[in-house]
Amino acid sequence: MDKISQPELSVVIPLFNEALSLEALHTEIGHALADFDYEILYVDDGSTDNSFSVLTDIQKKSNNVRVIRFRRNFGQTAAMSAGFKYAHGKIIIPMDADGQNDPADIPKLVTKLEEGYDIVSGWRKERKDNTVTRTLPSRMANWMIGRITGIRLHDYGCTLKAYRAESLKQIRLYGEMHRFIPALARWGGEKVVEMVVNHRPRTTGQTKYGLSRTSKVILDLITIKFLASFSTKPIHIFGGLGVLCFLGSLLSGITVLGMKFFVNYSMNRNPLLIISMMLMMAAIQFVLMGLLAEIMVRTYHESQDRPTYLIEKILEPESETA
What we know:
By secondary structure, the protein is of the alpha/beta class. It has helices at residues 19-32, 51-61, 76-86, 106-113, 131-149, 165-168, 181-187, 212-229, 235-262, 271-304, 318-321, and strands spanning 9-15, 38-44, 65-70, 91-94, 119-123, 161-164, 192-196, 311-315. Helix 5 runs parallel beside helix 8 (212-229).
């Protein structure tokens, strides 16, 4: 097979409205990987600027570039999932398109991977982001993810990582779950290590993420924990919630009885028991419906083998289409 079909590295770059940074980033990657056999997959996640035009020009001038264009914006996780699927390399390197990840770190990640690891996760030890809207929420999220998953990494949110391609084959990505790949892989027995990488300030465009992303990460983290710990033994979580319901009911009932005997407040006119039980039942139903919906959606996608994105166009190197 030709060189493009089985490169050593596949660099996967999801992007949304990053036209101003693409040319410089592409040049940097070329310099950093001059000694490697590599390909680059740009995944345009429904950009509304001229990102696709810039990528088209880049692809025409290169024999190792693929461009995947989505019909609309599906999110970073879907873009990374598409990039992983179409990557040919033995090692897959995702990175951001905004220029904050340093391509010069890629050879270092590969060297670390060759020490016997399956995943090398980047750690932006000195972040060049807004402290209030980016850095502090990220630290809190990393602490929470580490506590819940039991896999302690300083920087789950760093896109720059190195994966052995086989480590990604059994991982399906939904929601905002690309950041949880190291945890999912570690649960599957893969060897994961963290390495400090350079992080640069953004010089073009605007960040696409803020505080609103935190809630999505928390919800996905709950799902990850449920699927990892209770998917084969759901009675443990449902039974636990049942115990909580019972205790709440018992406490509410005791309160109503206390009000009856000590303050002579009529039980059949006391709204506390009814309100407490209704709120508790509603909360439990919402949580359980959410978890069941997650399972149903995953079962649907995996049984149908349908991706979570729609591709409008793929630009291939001429050497592959000839």
